[in-house]
Amino acid sequence: KLGKCPESGHDLLIKYSPRNRSYFVGCSGYPDCSVTYPLPQAIHYEAVEQLCPVCGTPQVKFRQFRQQPKEVCLNTACPSRQEPEIILGKCPTGDGGDLRVIRSQKSFKRFVRCSNYDVCGTSYPLPQRGDLEPTDEVCEPCGSPKVIVLTKKGPWKICIDPNCPTKPADSKKTGKGGAQAKGAAKAKAKAKPKAKAKAKAKPKAKAKPKPKDATETT
Questions:
Q1: What are the angstrom distances between the C-alpha of 168 and each of 23, 139, 159, 164, 174?
Q2: Is 45 helix (H, G, I), strand (E, B) or coil?
């Protein structure tokens, strides 16, 4: 139970959709009330007593894998759910699009996507922690913009392209195709049949003592 439905006043409950294989929030007054809210992918959800100070909708606390708990408004159209508009530069494909920071409402992860994504398909992952500060610098080897990530350990400047030639070899493996290649290698190793153990030689049977002749005398 996450609160009261803003339309019918019934309880808002966390439900599971077998079709989408994901959790969502639905009104207990269904089918009379069809109010639903999507939930970010997480491993744990908790109710929040306070309503959203911006729109008055109930809030939820969720925790993702290896992440700190977060509180968000259930209403995806709430201004509090919108990521501040950050433009990191122009798309390196030359299509004239802007590279914008976007947050997925499903996974709640932020990433970079070109404003002409439907044409060029350009997108980049981003660190999930720390504030972002755009720069006017462009990485010379790959042509992608550089961004400053502000964390507790201090600011650090990175190229947003995970496949940039300046990145270490280990970090490139986690980019496009890296994780899939590792998984395929593990599956291949498991698929190899185990060598059959050599059959142990059977111990020779002991020779039975010959029976004594009954005619023999001691």
A1: 38, 15, 12, 9, 11
A2: strand
In tens, the pLDDT along 25-79 reads 999 999 899 999 988 877 788 888 899 999 989 998 888 777 778 888 998 888 8
In angstroms, rounded to a whole number, what is the distance separating the alpha carbons of residues 25 and 12?
6
For 79, the token pair is 């201004």
d(C-alpha 124, C-alpha 107), whole Å:
15
Assess whether pLDDT exceeds 60 at residue 186.
no
Helices (H), the chain: 117-120, 169-173, 178-191
Half-sphere exposure of 79 (CA within 13 A, CB side): 4
Buried b (16+ CB within 10 A) or exposed e, 115-146: beeeebebebebeeebebeeeeeebeeebbbb
* pTM beyond cutoff 0.70: no
